[in-house]
Amino acid sequence: MRLRIFKTGAVGGLLALCALWAGGVLSGTILGTKHDFTGLNQRAGVVAMPTVAFSDLGESCVYCHIPPDKGDVDSSELGGIPGWNRFKGATNAYDLYDSRTLDNKVRTPSPISLLCLSCHDGTMAVDMTVFKPNGWRSSEDAALHLRINGADDLMNCAKCHNGRVAHNIAIKHLDTDLTNDHPISMTYAGLNNKDPDFRLPDGPYGFDNGVKIYDNKVECASCHNVHDPDITLLLRVSADRLCETCHIK
Ligand code: HEC
Ligand code: HEC
Ligand code: HEC
Ligand code: HEC
Ligand code: HEC
Question: pTM above the 0.85 mark?
């Protein structure tokens, strides 16, 4: 998020995630959302993206998740983000939010936030996965491997997504400078009623309204659920009530 005033109306319920890899039940609500990179051309009514902009790997899930047929592989042995089918962003360091009042200073984002940044920092192609699904033919590889980046050159989705040829993608490009974004990967200040400005979570995984805490930390996925498009911008709670879930004032 950008630290600025926002408004959003939609209120949505929490969807239980019942996506199953096996049995052909692909009920993940990723399908048809902006994170579904299969069949984008057909949905958007263009013939430009997969085959040119990025490779259509035939399965939506593998752009983030390690394909199940790989078993218990450790993607980090190949330079991947532990537990995810993606490489760390092509940057030496992220500039994370910092301020005089911040309790916990953080140097490196946790894996689950590195996952998001691997596309949204704009340094790496959207189809840069550690593993491709079995049976995917490299002859289907895209001509270009574009990045979510607002810069207008042949490396980036903004080649078309500039607001003229196609919708502008610059706002989805967080960059490696996260100093104007909400802090991430810091220990949640409200644990054990430690900080009077923060609420005590309802349980070890966060709050009953769906806002999550990961290993006691705030991550991108604390506020966003890429599996649930019910609330605008994939938020876990509508933006007008999101902040007060954690912040008391
Ligand atoms: C504390 C909650 C919170 C955290 C943590 C958070 N976001 Fe957000 N995010 C929001 C809110 C609220 C909005 C919508 C309002 C805005 O843009 O400020 C948003 C908007 C976005 C947008 C869409 C911008 C647009 O207007 O279309 C993207 C992309 C995004 N966030 C990605 C991320 C990523 C990646 C991370 C981790 C690096 C992250 N967010 C961390 C709350 C959060
Ligand atoms: C854009 C990245 C992304 C894509 C694409 C994606 N997922 Fe996920 N998935 C996540 C994240 C992040 C989580 C963790 C969410 C959480 O903690 O609530 C997750 C969690 C899950 C879980 C729960 C795992 C657990 O430990 O509880 C399942 C099952 C799952 N995804 C299946 C799928 C399937 C099936 C697809 C394809 C239809 C898919 N995902 C596509 C990012 C993604
Ligand atoms: C494989 C690449 C990839 C990964 C990984 C990824 N995203 Fe995205 N995300 C995208 C693309 C592409 C878009 C759509 C950009 C556009 O068309 O404007 C998008 C859009 C979004 C949006 C805006 C949705 C909307 O309705 O406008 C949010 C919020 C977001 N992503 C958050 C996340 C979070 C949080 C994670 C990590 C859990 C994540 N993304 C991981 C590629 C990715
Ligand atoms: C050659 C031009 C071109 C390139 C390159 C391109 N796109 Fe698109 N894209 C389009 C057009 C045209 C549309 C349909 C109009 C629109 O949504 O603005 C579209 C639509 C989309 C949509 C919306 C699909 C939907 O279901 O509404 C997403 C998401 C998207 N593009 C993501 C990307 C990403 C991510 C990249 C870079 C990896 C990319 N595009 C590169 C032309 C392009
Ligand atoms: C999941 C819990 C959570 C949610 C939801 C959340 N925050 Fe935070 N926020 C935190 C934590 C934890 C800190 C860091 C506090 C510390 O360590 O001092 C923080 C820090 C901040 C800071 C920096 C304060 C400083 O001391 O520099 C701002 C500004 C902020 N949040 C705004 C927001 C806004 C606006 C929203 C709603 C869009 C929001 N937060 C939602 C947990 C959350």
Answer: yes
Nearest CA to ligand 4 atom 8: 49
CA-nearest residue for atom 6, ligand 1, is 220
Ligand nearest to the CA of residue 212, numbered in listed order: 5
Alpha-carbon span 51 to 60, nearest angstrom: 15
pLDDT of residue 101: 79
Helix, strand, or coil (residue 242): helix
Nearest to 156 by CA among 141, 170, 136: 170
3-state secondary structure string across 25-62: CCCCCCCCCCCCCCCHHHHHCCCCCECCCECCCCCCHH
Residue with CA at minimum distance from ligand 5 atom 5: 243
For the chain, residues with pLDDT lower than 50 are 1-27
**DSSP alpha helices (H): ranges in the chain?**
40-44, 111-120, 220-223, 239-246
CB neighbours (10 Å) of residue 69?
11
Q: Does the beta carbon of 3 lie inside 6 Å of ligand 5?
A: yes
| pLDDT for res 84 | 97
Q: Is the CB of 184 under 6 A from ligand 5?
A: no
Ligand 5 atom nearest to CA at 6? 38
> Half-sphere exposure of residue 63, counting CA atoms within 13 Å on the CB side?
22
Task: Give the pLDDT of residue 91.
Answer: 86
